[in-house]
Amino acid sequence: MRLIAEALTRVYGDRRVLDGVDLELRPGQSVAITGPSGSGKTTLLGLCGGLVRPTGGTVTVEDDDGRRSPPDEHVGYVLQTVNVLPRRTALDNAALGALHDGTSWPDALDLAREALPRVGLGGLEDRIARSLSGGELQRVVIARALVGRHPFVLADEPTGQLDRSTSRDVTRTLLEASRDSCLVVVTHDEEVARSCEIVLRIDDGHLVPA
Ligand SMILES: Nc1ncnc2c1ncn2[C@@H]1O[C@H](COP(=O)(O)OP(=O)(O)OP(=O)(O)O)[C@@H](O)[C@H]1O
């Protein structure tokens, strides 16, 4: 299976943020997307997942039989912790990630019970989310992406609000937990970028090796 972005262009007003970007992603890879603020990192992530419509070019996922489909159902997200429901438990919040494909709530809870120890939250399943620390919440968001069992996981600044040592911890967790998927991380943090096998940079609308 591979995600193929071809000749991607995105224009906002008179600004060409991305200008002919090609990218091919396969499960098992870890890829960092870097670049200055406003260079188009979040836009590229949104295009890859089908959240942002391209001005030009295409994004498709090709399965092992060569059939192509839109990326949406193949992609999970690790977004900021603002998406966590504060009054629900860590378990409930993680289980939400499994509902996209019709998985039942009891099965989603089982998947979340397996995922939480993998991100270092074993024993905190029944804690109300608002009582968790920033690093713990970020792990809940990672667990939510894991229970989605997507071949491609897109993470936008997943450690942006964390201190250095928690960030290192959460990054390691994210990389280990998504070993079977393709993990794409948008980051300003050089240390996070260096943890990935492939480091790319957006430079004046183009995607280049960093
Ligand atoms: N919906 C939109 N409408 C208009 N302009 C937009 C929109 N989304 C993004 N932009 C602009 O496109 C450019 C790229 O934005 P994007 O968020 O992709 O950059 P980024 O590299 O992720 O930035 P940062 O590192 O600051 O998060 C910015 O100049 C931004 O203002």
From TrEMBL:
It comes from the Bacteria. It comes from Sanguibacter antarcticus. SUPFAM superfamilies: P-loop containing nucleoside triphosphate hydrolases. GO terms for molecular function: ATP binding; ATP hydrolysis activity; transmembrane transporter activity. GO terms for cellular component: plasma membrane. Keywords: ATP-binding, Lipoprotein, Nucleotide-binding. This is Putative ABC transport system ATP-binding protein/lipoprotein-releasing system ATP-binding protein. Pfam families: ABC_tran. Gene3D superfamilies: P-loop containing nucleotide triphosphate hydrolases. Residues 3-210 form the ABC transporter domain. SMART domains: AAA. InterPro entries: AAA+_ATPase, ABC_transporter-like_ATP-bd, ABC_transporter-like_CS, ABC_transpr_LolD-like, P-loop_NTPase.
